[in-house]
Every structure is written in structure tokens, then in C-alpha cells.
Amino acid sequence: MVKPKFPKSLEEKTQNTCRIRSNAFVTAWHKTQKSFVPEEVEFAQDQRILDFFDDQPIYGIGTVQYFRGKLNIITEDDPQSYKQALAMVNVPTSDLELYHGLECVKNIDKVCVAVNKYILWTPSNKDSVTEDYDIALLEYIKTIFPNRHIEHFYVKGVKGNHFNFASPTTQFFITNENN
Amino acid sequence: MKIIESYNDFELTVDSKKRLYKELHYRERDYVAKRLPAGKSVWIDSNGDGTNPNVVAFENEKWKEIFDPHIPIKFYRYFNSPTLVQAINKYIKPASVVIYQSEEFRYLTPEELRYKIEFMVDSYPTKIFIYIDMLGIDFNKLKYSYTHIIESVVTQNTIIHDLDDSKYLLEIN
């Protein structure tokens, strides 16, 4: 597989904001959509996250409010002391912001990155990026988390039916396992 | 606890449909309203103001039960229906047709978006306004910029109004 070229140019930037933005509307929309169902339910993508983590503290960035109370989420600014991290990317985010936003969790043992692929944007065309968006996203995540085991979940051709804007259906479960 | 994957896993109640429709159409209409020419304006799947005598609102019939039956709103089954096009052109003779925050223009690929814009141009010999939020358009957002995509789908005689961030209003004819 050809390694994407654009992250190299991104690495030339020294900025490391280590932030994925959050949005109260997204959290409210998550709650609203669940309220449409008369019984207690969990979205499939949320259940995967719940199943992935253990009881140890989880460094959370982005729209992680839904998981407070369900997981041991911490959002204090010392990510390197954690063994687990959850990044929920569900507000408009540029490719550069995504790269730098995940910088602070790239060395953590166990990371879940969930991305609503509709809300990403790039300021200019990138010829070197793979045409298939789902594969391009995986390649992008691999450049941030090199030499890691990555389990990739996504809904092919996801439209508005899968609660993607409440909880992203594209998910990367990143560990140190070599299988 | 039950695990669900999509809206196919349960039935929406009328109240849920109302809430959902409101969320899909929550923004101000001023972007379009201030640019409308004089005369009748047809709003398709766009929460048109049915109480305004200059506005004729058409909504997808799947939403029929959420609207006040006393407000004059018309319903359609198929957006691409020649019958709908003919009825609008022949009986309403609008000065403009408006697509605003419409599901018909959401989750489309650029190819599908281009086709629908061309359909509108071919169908309605009027001023046409189409609101597009690129957040809801389905393309490779690591590879292509919003500007590239919007410029690749428009037809001739189109003014692209860059509203803010990801939102565009196409003014055609």
C-alpha cells in the first residue's frame, strides 16, 4: 500500500494543539435520537466503544460527554499518564486539526478514534490521497498511529440512517497487539 | 439492553417525526427570502411558510401527519416526478423555486448532486435557489475541498453565494 504523502507535509508544522473540539448540540442530538426509541437502547457504534475499554481511566477528547458515567472518562490535560484514550470527532474539523488533535494520544496503549466522516474538510485538493474515502481515512489514521494494530469499523455508503451525526459510525480501535 | 444500528430498527412516532423535521429545518430562511423575486415562490421539502400567500409549500408525504391540516401545504411522493413538475409549472406558474435545507439535497454524492441540480434547471424555467450544506454531501473530504466540489456541480447561469463555513446558496437563472 502506498503511504499517503500529505501527512508528511503536516508534520512540518510544529503546532500541537492537542484538541478535538466538542459541541453541546451534538451531545443533545445524541440524547434526542435515542429518545425516539420507546425502550432503552444503545447505538451499535457506542456499544463497541463500551466493550473496548476497561475500568481504568480514559483520557477523553472531543464530544465524549455521552460516555461520562458509562466509562471512566477524564479530560484533564495530562494524556501521557493514561493507558486508554477516546477521541470523538463530530464537529467540523480540518484534516490538519484532526492530525494535531490526535497528537497527544498517539502513544497511548489503547485508543479509540471515532470520526464522523461528513464533518471533515480540507482547504485544498490533495492529489496523493486515495480516492476511496473509507480507505483514505484508515491510511490517515495509520500515519498518526504507525506500527499499531488498528481495527476499522465503518458503514459503507453511510447516509442519514445510522445516527452518524450523533455518534460517528467510522471507528478505529487502536492497540499494541501485533495480530 | 437492545442494540440498534439504524432507523430501520424502530418506528418513529408522530412526535418524534415532528422533532426530527424541526431539526432538519431549524435555520433561518432569511438567506433565501431576501433574494426572492416578486411573485409566487414554490418551496419543495423546505419548510415553506404555508401561511404566506406568495409561498406554495410542497412537502414529502412521509411528513404529512406532522403538519397542521389547516395550513395549506401540498404533498408529493416523488421529487423527480414529471407530474409534480407539470403541476407546479402549469397551475402555480412560480417566479421562483426554492430548495432549502431539503433532505432531497442531503447525503448526495457530487454526481447525484449534479444530476439533481440539472434536473431542477431542466424542469423549472424560473429563478431557482438551492441551499447546500457541504457537511451533508457525501465525498472524500480528505481529498477534495468544498470549493472544488461546489464548483464542479453547478451549471451555467449560477451565482454561488458562500454563506459561511460549509454552506452555499446557489442562485440559478
What share of residues are in beta strands of chain B? Answer: 15-25%
Order of helices and strands of chain A: HHEHEEEEHEEHEE
Beta-strand proportion of chain A: 15-25%
Large-scale geometry of chain B: globular
The chain-level structural class of chain A is alpha/beta
Structural class of chain B: alpha/beta
Chain pair with largest interface: A-B, 40 and 35 residues
Spatial gap, N to C terminus of chain B: 54 Å
Explain the overall architecture.
The complex is a heterodimer of chains A (179) and B (173). Chain A is an alpha/beta fold and 179 residues long. Chain A has one domain (6-175): Rossmann fold, CATH 3.40.50. Chain A contains 5 helices and 9 strands. In chain A, the strands form 2 sheets. A 6-stranded mixed sheet of chain A has the order 3-2-4-6-9-8, sandwiched between helices. Chain A has a two-stranded parallel sheet with strand order 5-7. Chain A starts with 5 loop residues before the first helix and ends with a strand. Chain B is α/β, with parallel strands linked by helices and 173 residues long. Chain B has one domain (7-172): Rossmann fold. Helices cover 28% and strands 24% of the residues of chain B. Chain B has helices at residues 14-24, 30-33, 82-92, 110-123, 146-153; strands spanning 2-4, 41-44, 55-60, 73-76, 96-99, 127-133, 158-164, 167-172. Chain B has a 7-stranded mixed sheet, with helices on one face. In chain B, strand 5 (96-99), helix 4 and strand 6 (127-133) form a beta-alpha-beta unit. Chain B starts with a strand and ends with a strand. The relative contact order of chain B is 0.14. Chain A binds chain B through residues 6, 29, 32, 35-44, 47, 92, 95, 117-126, 129-133, 136-137, 140, 157, 159-163, and chain B through 1-10, 12-13, 16, 19-20, 23, 103, 106-107, 134-146, 148, 165-166.
